[in-house]
Design a protein that fits this description.
Layout: H1 3-7, H2 17-20, H3 22-32, E1 37-38, H4 39-46, H5 50-62, E2 66-73, E3 76-83, H6 85-103, H7 106-112
Antiparallel strand pairs: 1-3, 2-3
Amino acid sequence: MSADNDARAPQPPDIDRLIHEPSRYSIMALLYVVERAEFLFVQNQIHLTPGNLSAHVSKLEAAQYLSVEKQFVGKKPRTFLRLTGLGRDAFENYRDKMKQLFSVPLSKKSSLE
């Protein structure tokens, strides 16, 4: 294949790589459908260790996609996770781009962009 052919190859939509990672996608998808969720609930739902979930949460928090709220319920410390407005928008954008990727063949996409 020549360099000219490579230059004209259609490109898939630019997707958010932070969300694209499977564990972070699962966290975002779960939080998208609830107002907030307790850390332990998220951990049990997506089957991650506390340390693994914490590492992914830290990356999403650094991107300002979610917020972490620590509070006491009775005498027990609890950690709650919530999508921010930016995180909600990013997830919707990611979802729309993935739908586009799977619904329109790449050869037709290049003519749409």
